Amino acid sequence: MAYEMNFTPVLARTPELISGTIDTLILSSQSIGIGLTIGLAAALLRVDGPKWGAVVSATYVEAFRNTPLLVQLFLLFFGLPYMGIRLTANEAAIFAISLNLGAYSAEIFRAGLLAIPKTQIEAGLALGLSRLQVMRYVVIIPALRIIYPSLTGQLTLTLLGTSIASAISATELTLAGAKIESQTFRSLETFLVLAAIYITMTFVFRFLYWLVGLWLFRRRVPKTGSAAATLTLPREVES
Amino acid sequence: MPALRIENLKKSYGNVPVLKGINLAVENGDVVAVIGRSGSGKSTMLRCINGLEPFQEGTIEVVGHKLDQSRANLRELRKEVGMVFQSYNLFPHLSVAENITLAPRVVKGLPRDEGSALVREVLSRVGLAEKADAYPDELSGGQQQRVAIARSLAMKPKVMLFDEVTSALDPELTGEVLKTIAQLAEAGMTMVLVTHEMGFARRVATRTVFMHQGTVWEEGKSEEIFTHPKTPELKNFIAPDLK
Amino acid sequence: MIQSFGWQSVQFLFHGLVWTVGLSLCTFVGGGIFGLLFAIARSLGPNWLRALVAGYIQLVQATPLLIVVFLSYYGLSFLGFYFPPLAAAAISLTIYATAFLADIWRGCIEAIPRTQWEAADALALSPFQRLRYVILPQAFQISLGPTVGFMVQIVKNTSVTALIGFVELTRAGQLLNNMTFQPFHVFLTVAAMYFVVCYPLSWWSEKLKERKHAGTAH
Ligand SMILES: Nc1ncnc2c1ncn2[C@@H]1O[C@H](COP(=O)(O)OP(=O)(O)OP(=O)(O)O)[C@@H](O)[C@H]1O
Ligand SMILES: [Mg+2]
Fold first, then answer.
1. Ligand 1 pocket, residue B39 CB under 6 Å
2. Cβ contact, residue pair A126, B94, below 8 Å
3. Scanning B206, B226, C63, C154, which has the fewest C-beta atoms within 10 Å of its C-beta?
4. What is the pTM of this model?
5. Alpha helices, DSSP H, located in chain B
């Protein structure tokens, strides 16, 4: 019972695939922008804040890291109206994905902050720099360099994770694909095409992260091994 | 007015007292060596002087800035008090020149185009004029420590604090750093240096302070301290060096 | 028929939780076996095999889990196999977990310093003995924290199979919500149940990682 592959009906829907891809890119970049901000704030609150701040931050991080994104989406989209907050599917998706990324990136940022030796901070203070200046000039770049592989890995997982937002009918690529699949009945072909698009996006982004890394850490290229080698260290896998 | 005056300084970690009422005055141009056994509180005292450690009692006055438990004025004070650490603590992501100009630029607003003149000036004082573009991990320990001294000098401090700056160095490299410090002393810099190099303390320091169990146990002209120690503790401490 | 959220609902969800845990265990065992084989192939195999496994890892890690699940469920059934949701769920999650576990464990194997390999060689151990007695035991030690950490991901990943109709905890929550129309209660309870399973694993993973750091400090 051989099955004949036929991509024509799926490829005929290229405009929808393109707009789905664009929607996915928009959803991802909005969530990444908000999520990293939340994550940085949560990390600073945990590391440098008052005691209650550390408790709040840790609770948030653990709550979101130990429950599935899909359930977070359902809770925000279907559950929040119970508390009088009604979000559109797209708003709920941005909200949930940002909070999810915020929790993961908080842990990554925290690891970076803690990895900078205390003596570096003291040396900065002893030179008369303010705490903020020490952060800005002494801590950020070395810390970012340490966490760069895990941070960009996390961003890739966030990009791919947006496909789950199709479950609440937020507009993005997987939803576009599901519609095409249900109208053409070409399931295998549709999802193969989607996979190809996601894989392409991922590789393009990895390349961009690599370029950004070269630029960010341009001031200091290690003598041993290429910069690229240090940027593709095995990252910690978390989604 | 002394460059540095410490009155009744008390500090404890938890309920373990580490400094038990330190009194010390350092005049302009003085070079004070602080010696004493490990754990006697030398580093802690130095770190209190530029506010890296809070303390519970007493006052510290450095070049006109008064430091007490309130920890106000800290940054004003730090602009005029340099500190060099045992572990160099250069910033690894910045070149030698950038390490040197960072604080003058962001703290004192030094214009960019005056940076290189400053770098040349302070590097030549530590004998490393040709290393401006190197990165810390391309330098030997002794060179890194001299860059750290240059970095501190770039802020034009009125007082400099040195905490065992040669302890992490091989004997061959110790010499070049001590030579740099001796040159600063000759140029009239006011300095407080914690050191285990007894010969150096004796030769370069105008005064020597012996710390014991969190107090200034004995102090005086370096020559006096090393040739006529009064307390048995000090005698015991420097005995091996007199042989 | 459950009309409103109450004790019966919790029991209903608990039933879903049992399936979530079951599916997670299947995935961990399947992903563990293939992941280990792939990790060894990736770090020690001949070049063509390394490239093949590396390609597999790269492609799977660049595909959304949901698409992997859809491909297994809708796609492969057209090839003439019929997959019930449970089988499709287990297969797709295993495909996914294999790629990630292989990558984690490859990192652990490669983290063992060259000097250990050389020391084993110097003692005239065979390549298999070298792996069995010197490399893998050490790699195992450092892999514990990340592996337990990935188990948390596996448990959470099972929720995606709700979208092909496999009735695990999240799907049970959706069904219950359709009956009770109390989404806030339902999904908060669902989230709490995931948390109860995942948090201890996360905690354990952190402990294992700390022990690793404490160990290397000496
Ligand atoms: N952060 C800290 N917490 C608790 N105790 C501390 C801390 N830092 C130092 N101490 C204690 O304070 C005492 C004085 O320490 P300090 O570092 O000032 O000694 P030191 O004279 O510089 O010794 P060394 O010659 O070994 O450098 C020691 O007993 C030390 O254990
Ligand atoms: Mg000390």
1. yes
2. no
3. B206
4. 0.83
5. 42-49, 74-80, 96-108, 115-125, 141-153, 171-186, 198-204, 222-227, 232-242
